[in-house]
Amino acid sequence: MSNPYAPPSGGPRTRPEAPTAPPGPEDGTAPAPGGPDEQGPAQHGQPGHGHRTPAPRPPVDPEAAREASRQVMHFGLMMLATIIAVSLPLPWQAAALAFALGAVVLGIRALRAVWRSGLRGALVAILGFGLGLAALLTLSLVTMLALWPVQMERQSCLRDALTISATTACEDQFQQRLDETLERVPGVGSGS
């Protein structure tokens, strides 16, 4: 059995010929570099060549960029205030909803300002992520405030619990009260 990867045996070995350039349109010479076969940088974007360059972006206005960065900073500070307020005990935790709503409004304004100023790239993606996070926090805070009495009972029970078993009992009591409360809501409870 012969080796399929071995060079062919027998006969003189010749080098393959180099490809020749096709003759030019008038005198039979090869086309000049940058001609229709070789697209140089000047020919990208000309009609009929299959490549279109995107329209150049307008230059970034420094004053608009400064205003956009100020609004992004205000959005970031409002998000920070929301996160800090969420970690506070319940009467003060209600302020987090106001901060979260303010963060949503400021985030939308900051995103519009960044887009109008001509800034692109990661800043737009980060603002979009932050805006989604602010909306998610707003929704969770509205849900938490709808369960205010149950949350207050849990918080006072956990404050007085000194042992692990007492903490577990508080969590079990909270879960039971949460289930009872949700059963009374139309469309959520299992009795509907």
Automatic annotation (TrEMBL):
Note the superkingdom of the native organism. Answer: Bacteria
Q: Where is this region: Disordered?
A: 1-67
The entry's keywords: Membrane, Transmembrane, Transmembrane helix
Regions crossing the membrane: 122-148
Compositionally biased spans, kind Low complexity: 26-46
* Pro residues composition-biased segments: 1-10
What's this protein's name?
DUF4190 domain-containing protein
Organism of derivation: Actinotalea soli
